[in-house]
Amino acid sequence: MFNRLTSAALAASLAVFGPTSAAAQTEIEFALDWKFEGPAAPYFVAIDTGIFSEAGLAVNISEGNGSLDAIPKVATGAFPIGFADINSLMRFLDQNPDAPVKAVMMVYDKPPFAIVGRKSLGIEVPADLEGRVLGAPPPDGAWAQFPIFAAANNLDVDTITVEPVGFPTREPMLAAGEVASVTGFSFSSTLNLMRLGVPADDISVILMADHGVALYGNAIIVNTDFAAANPEVVTSFLGAVAAGWKAAIADPETAVASLIQRNPAADADLETERLQMAIDANVLTDYVIANGMGGVDADRMMAAIEQTKSVYEFINEPDMSLYFDASYLPAADALMLQ
Q1: Roughly how many angstroms between the first and final C-alpha of the chain, as a whole number?
Q2: What is the mean pLDDT of residues 80-105?
C-alpha cells in the first residue's frame, strides 16, 4: 500500500507556497533515472540559466540508479516528480494499481534500449547473442525489454547465458572480455567503453528500436496526488524541461558546463558527445520536430502495449490512460525544440 498521506501532505504544503515570485518559489525534488551524465545536462542548464526560477520553481535534482529507480520514489511521495522508463511504469502500475504515479511528458521518443557488444567477441547482429554471455543489471530498463527484443528477433534465449552484473561493473566486464555484450542505454554503455579504452570500431550497438521493439522510452513521471493539487506547478515544470532541452540542443557545450559543475570528475568532451547522441537518436526525432516534445501518438502507444502483452501477462486490462496523461503539458509552442 502506498503512502498517500505522505504524498497528500507534500502536495498540500506546496499548494500553499505556490510559484508566485522569485522570493516565494515552489521547491521541487526531481529524481533522475541515472547519474549526472550528458543527458541530464538540460535540467541543470534550466537551473543555471534561470529557466526554472522564471517558472517559479526551485528545483533540486537527485541521481538515480537505473530506469526503474524513480518509480517507487515518486509513487510513495518521496519525490513529486521523476524520470523513468514508461514501459517499466506500465508493469509497475499493473502490479500496483492504486499507486499514485503516472507519466506526463515523453522525453525519449525513441528509446535508447540497446545491446552493446564487441565485434572482436563476435557480437554484431542480434543472432550473435546466441551461445554467448550477456551481462545484464537486473534494474536496467534495457534488460526489462529484452524479452520483447528476443521475441522480435526469434532468439533462442536458452542458448544465451545471462550474467547478472552491477551497473558499476557492466562496462568494465565487457571491456575485459568477461561478457560478450551487455544491456544498457546506447549512449551510456558506448561512451563508457570508449573511456575504458575499447576502440570505437570494436563496439557494436544493437538498438532495440531498430530491431523490432516498438516502444517509447523514458518520461517525466509525477505523483498524481501532488499533480492534482498543483496542476500549474506541474505544467510550469514541464514547460521548463522543454526549454532546458531546447537550450541544450542549441548549445550542448554550455549545457554540459552546467553538468560538470555538479560532477567535476566527468569528462566534458565525453559528456557533450553523450548528450549529442541522446539528442540525435532519442529526443529530437522526426515526430518531435513536427509535433513538439512531450506527447505520444495514441496508435503507437497502443502498439507498444500490445507488444508488451506478447511477453508480459497483465493482471489488469491495460489502457493508455492508466499510464500517460498529456493534460499537464503546456501549450504546443512551448514544446517546440527548434
Answers
A1: 43
A2: 97
Instruction: Supply the range of the domain harboring residue 131.
Output: 113-210
Distances, alpha carbon 271 to alpha carbons 185, 282, 290, in Å = 14, 16, 27
Q: How many domains are contained in the chain?
A: 2
Cβ contacts of residue 38 below 8 Å, gap of 6+? 187, 256, 259, 270, 271, 272, 273, 274, 275, 276, 277, 278
85 three-state secondary structure: strand
Q: What is the mean pLDDT of the chain?
A: 93
What is the pTM (predicted TM-score) of this model? Answer: 0.89
Q: Is residue 251 left, alpha or beta, with left meaning phi > 0 and alpha meaning psi from -120 to 50?
A: beta
| Distance in angstroms (rounded) separating the CA atoms of residues 131 and 175 | 19
What pLDDT, in 10s, does the model give residues 133-165?
999 999 888 999 999 999 999 999 999 999 999
Alpha-carbon span 189 to 93, nearest angstrom = 28
Q: How far apart are CA 46 and CA 146, in angstroms?
A: 34
pLDDT of residue 246: 98
- Cell 489502457 found at: 319
Assign residue 101 the CATH number of its domain.
3.40.190.10
- 8 A C-beta contact, residue 141 and residue 184: no
DSSP string, 7-75: HHHHHHHHHHT-S-BTTBPEEEEEE-SS-S-GGGHHHHHHHHTTHHHHTTEEEEEE--SSTTTHHHHHH
pLDDT in tens, 273-320: 999 999 999 999 999 999 999 999 999 999 999 999 988 999 999 999
Residue appearing with cell numbers 502498439: 303
- What is the rounded distance in angstroms from the CA atom of residue 146 to the CA atom of residue 208? 8
d(CA 147, CA 312): 9
Q: In this structure, are 289 and 187 located in the same domain?
A: no
Instruction: Check whether residue 325 and residue 223 sit in a common domain.
Output: yes
